[in-house]
Every structure is written in C-alpha cells, then in structure tokens.
Amino acid sequence: MSMSSSGAFIGLCWVVLWAYWLISALSAKRSVRSGWRWSGGASRLALFIGVVVLIHLVGSRQFFAGIPRARSSGAVAASTGAIVCASGVALAIWARVQLGRNWGMPMSLREEPELVTSGPYAYVRHPIYSGLLLAMLGSAIAVRLNWLGLWAVFFLYFLYAARVEEGHMTRRFPDVYPEYQRRTKMLIPFLL
C-alpha cells in the first residue's frame, strides 16, 4: 500500500468511527452526572472542536517548527499502520456496539447502568480506549511518527479516565466489579 493510499484509508477509518460515534450517541441513556463541566451536547461540541483544532495544529508546519519531522518510511510502514489503525477502529466500534445504550462521555454516569463483560469487555475493561489508542498508533506508524507525542497524551488521559470510571463502577457494582477487575486487564490483554 502506498503512503498516499494508506493515508486516505486511515482518514476513511477515522471518518467512519466519528460518524458512527455521533449517530450512536443519539440513542445513549440519559446522563445522571457528567464527568464534564458542561451538559451533554455542549461537552460533545467542545470536545469535537478541541480535537479538530488539535489535529489542525499538530498537522501544521508551525507546530513542529525546529523539530525534525519523523516520517514513516515506505510501503511496509504505510500498510502496517493502516492495518493497525483499522484494527483499532474496529475494536472501538465493536466495544461501542457491545455497550449499547450504556455508552457515555468519559467519566460520566448513566441512568440505570448495566455492567457489560461480554465481547471485547471479556478481555479488557476499557476496549474503547484501547481501540482508539491502537488506531492512533497505526496512524502514527503510517503517516507521521511525530504523532506519537499526541498518542502519549491520550494514553495518559485514557488511563486517568479509566481509573475514575473504575471507581464509579466499583461503587455501583460492589459485588461483581472487583472480581471483573481481577480477571481482566485495564487496556492491554495480559499486560495492563
């Protein structure tokens, strides 16, 4: 796969993910308490605008002025990155489908939540975060290695959000959630 076709494919993967996310968010249960300061619609809009601005800044030449650009080299990196990105997007969508109406913005609480432990949740407790991180890693491998810095920022954020959410889940499901934590990893099967 050439670098230009892998870039187009990766862009398509992200468009499919965001389109599915926005459409499926319409059927989510009502939020009891949001992890965000603003209510649902405002926080989603602010997050979307923030991500678009961040992507624009990171993609601009001025953002990396003076820093050597680390481009992924060759067709092997482009193909590998595209496969990793598509795998991450597929994992995130699979996890989102499995959650159904229980999905919410990071660190939010839903009305009448259910503990989902099937599908990808049988392997990791936060497969949406895992899938997004995998998709970002694939994008960096295929397009520009400088994106690994942004990946690290998201990794730290997702780690923080997962810990906050696990506190909520432990309080909500005190009899079953600790056992679920013991048998599954947080983000990476068998490792973390």
Structural topology:
Blueprint: H1 3-24, E1 31-33, H2 40-59, H3 74-99, E2 109-110, H4 127-142, H5 147-172, H6 177-183
Antiparallel strand pairs: 1-2
Task: Note down, in words, how this protein is organized.
This protein has 192 residues and is mainly alpha-helical. The protein has a single domain, classed as Four Helix Bundle (Hemerythrin (Met), subunit A) (Up-down Bundle), CATH 1.20.120. 61% of the residues lie in helices and 3% in strands. The chain has 6 helices and 2 strands, in the order αβααβααα. A two-stranded antiparallel sheet has the order 1-2. Helix 1 packs antiparallel against helix 4 (127-142). It starts with a helix and ends in a 9-residue tail after the last helix. Residues 34-39 and 63-69 have low confidence and may be disordered.
Summed up, what is this model?
With 192 residues, this protein is mainly α. Helix content is 61%, strand content 3%.
Descriptive key words:
single chain; 192 residues; mainly alpha; Four Helix Bundle (Hemerythrin (Met), subunit A); two-stranded antiparallel ribbon; 6 helices
Order of helical and strand elements: HEHHEHHH
Are there runs of 5+ residues with pLDDT below 50, and where?
34-39, 63-69
Question: Structural class given helices, strands, pairing?
Answer: mainly alpha
According to DSSP, the number of beta strands is 2
Distance between the termini: 32 Å
Question: Helix content range of the residues, please?
Answer: 55-70%
Number of discrete domains = 1
Number of helices: 6
Mean pLDDT: 79
Query: How many whole angstroms does the radius of gyration measure?
Result: 17 Å
The description of the largest β-sheet is: 2 strands, antiparallel
Q: Look up the CATH topology.
A: Four Helix Bundle (Hemerythrin (Met), subunit A)
Strand percentage lies at under 5%
Q: Determine and state the CATH class.
A: Mainly Alpha
